[in-house]
Amino acid sequence: MKNDIANLISEKKNATLAMAISISRNKNIINSLLSNNNSNLKFEEFSKELKENTKFKNVWFQIINKNGNSFYRSWTNKTDDSLVFRDNVNIVLKEKKNLATISIGKFDMTFKSMIPIIHNNEAIGVFEIITHFNSISKTLEKTKIDSIVLADEKYKDKIIYPFTKMFLEDYYIANLNAKPSLIDFIKKEGVKRILNEEKFLIIEDKLITTFKINEYKNQIGYVILVKNLNEIDLLDVKNFKRNSRLFVLLIIFFIGLLYTIISYYIYLNSIKKLNIELQNNFDEIKKQEEKNQIILDSQKNIIVITDGRIIKNSNKQLLDFFNFNSLDSFQNRYKCICETFIDMYDDTYIVDKDYGGKNWAEHILANPDIKFKAAILKDSKLYHFTLNVNSTIFDNETIPYIIVTLTDITHEIEQQEKLMRLNDSLEDLVELKTKELLELNESLEKRVEEETQKNKEKDRMLFQQSKMAAMGEMLSNIAHQWRQPLTSISTAISSLKLQKDLDLLDDKHFDSTCEMILKNSEYLSQTIEDFKNFFKKEKSKTNFSLLKSILENFSLLKDKFKHSQIELIVNIDKDIKIFGFKNEFQQAILNILNNSSDAFDSQDSNKRRVVLIEYIDNILYIKDSAGGIPEDIICRIFEPYFTTKHQSQGTGIGLYMTREILTKHMNYILEVNNCSFSLENEKFYGACFKINFI
Q1: Which of 283, 284, 280, 316 is CA-nearest to residue 300?
Q2: Which of 358, 413, 364, 406 shows the shortest CA–CA distance to 386?
Q3: Can you give the pLDDT at residue 652?
Q4: Of 197-201, 507-511, 549-553, 654-658, which gets the smallest average pLDDT?
Q5: What is the DSSP letter of 663?
Q6: CA distance 590 to 598
Q7: Are 387 and 364 in contact (CB under 8 A)?
Q8: What beta strand segments (E) does 285-372 contain?
């Protein structure tokens, strides 16, 4: 009876996992998550079909988005509640691995299979199937075994909305078909007495035993199994023995020959039946192995089953990676996958060596807190993998099997190296721009150095890079704005010198020329002051004028806009004030305006170029007529290092830092979409950035 329930639970868990893996590949699920629209999901209809045609009578389906919120439930319309309190949700999203468990939630004790939904190598959600114990208890009924499935009493307060609405003292009853008479019988005899019995009890005419349900070494529930003694053929055995003793001496001679013939016939038939059973068992085992192999091959990562020295099995991803046709051909060259590992002279990278008497897999199991990696050289390219190792012992075996999952992180490693190189190049660029500024004005060197020392960044590297990138753009703008005043000053001085040499210089012309030089010098000085104020570190939030801060921003960009023939139109009441870090807010707006300016570079110069900034109902809109952002990348423009520009023109961190400043530093909401707008009876189309001040 205990073996039967153990097998039924294992089969139900595997069947639920296989169903979850198969359905999670449905492209409709991915498209619904990407579009944030669950109206096309009809799993309640699929659940109804399963109920009518299979043993799965109450199957629940749930889809969870990448933020850990419920996106869709087949059994209720309630969604959008956070599920991040569930450890299994975080594990599947972060580690991108499948989970098959028995767990207890607000509704029931159920079988849960959770599959990560992967898009562009990122987990965008989780597909979850929930099944119940009812089919198991009904299967037991067919063998004349009654059952009650109980959740442990410690979970009583956790089950807020009980699916079956039945309790046995403080134990929740998880199967709908639990017989009321059996519940009363267990209650009468004492549920704790029955649950604490290690073997079995015979009470009245019933044989009673208990199967304990454990998950991750925690006891979470029980199955009480009851069979009537009159259903057990013990009496037939006793009668047969007694009658055999009475008649064996009388008929032994007559049945001797017949016994021999019948025994031989029975032997032949037994052998035949045994062969059939063996063949059926072999076919079942083969089918199960094929199913297991299909599940292994469906995984994206390389999976190896080993004892730490010899490979027992693997999925096709291992063979595809090493370009082998079969596991045998792989093993002809490598006995252990560890033979392919390259020594990176890093303790977190595993190699084929002895680790204090343990092999590499045992060493990983003994140090679960360390994230071990492996490096493999293939076709002159170095690949990096994280190693996830689990150990299990199968039935009737003593040697543990080790399941190793290799997840390719080569791209992440390359990105880290690229980030380091980018940081080095940014430092060189900052140094170059600083030298150019020093050549323009020696006195500026001391002032910029003092301000730089006061404003040393303590934030993380991306914020520093954003500041440097913004400084580079501002230096370019300053150089552009200084060009005309410096030319005017140079021309005026040359004119004065020439007129003096020719004795044509009079006081009136001298005074007007000096006044013009002073005016242009003041303009140059004001440009530097604007540059200083833009990068000044703020200690606290303040109330500041929205219109004034935007116009101050535009003073640094007006020559760039004028050169690119871009009109800036601002419709904001001068009395509108917002609360935040003014300089950081200006930097965020500057990044958006620069983005719009760059977007016009690929547009027909004969078309009217407009940037419209307006404030409506506590929302700031920044719209341009540059044709919009392609739909296939609009969802990625706030990602770090994502850029459509050439490397020499952009780093891909400007809009990312804009979102960081507005959403995290100031708690605003930043959104972007493409839109049409009208201005002076003329229609335009382009990108629209919306800042909701909440």
Answers
A1: 316
A2: 406
A3: 59
A4: 507-511
A5: I
A6: 12
A7: yes
A8: 302-306, 311-314
Give dist(CA 530, CA 336) in Å, integer: 65
What's the rounded Cα separation, in Å, for the pair 264 and 338? 56
Q: CB–CB of 59/131 below 8 Å?
A: yes
Torsion (CA) 669, 670, 673, 675 in degrees, nearest 10 = 80
Cα dihedral sign, 505-510-516-520: positive
Q: How many Cβ atoms sit within 10 Å of the Cβ of residue 92?
A: 23
Q: In this predicted model, what pLDDT tens digit does every residue of 491-518 receive, in sequence order?
A: 768 777 777 777 777 877 777 778 767 7
| Token pair for 331 | 């093993």
The alpha-carbon radius of gyration of the chain (Å, integer) is 38
Which residues are paired to 686 by β-bridges? 675
Express each pLDDT in 204-233 by its tens digit: 888 999 999 988 778 899 999 999 888 776
Q: Among the residues of 302-441, which ranges form H helices?
A: 316-322, 327-333, 360-366, 410-440
For tokens 């009109």, the residue is: 567
- Do you know the residue count of the chain? 694
In the DSSP assignment, the letter for residue 664 is: I
Average pLDDT, the chain: 82
Residue the block writes with tokens 């419920």 = 70
Pick from 665, 472, 644: nearest CA to 581: 665
Contacts of 347 (CB under 8 A, 6+ apart): none
Q: How far apart are CA 492 and CA 338, in angstroms?
A: 77
What is the 3-state secondary structure of 411-452?
HHHHHHHHHHHHHHHHHHHHHHHHHHHHHHCHHHHHHHHHHH
Q: Are 485 and 523 a contacting pair, CB within 8 Å?
A: yes
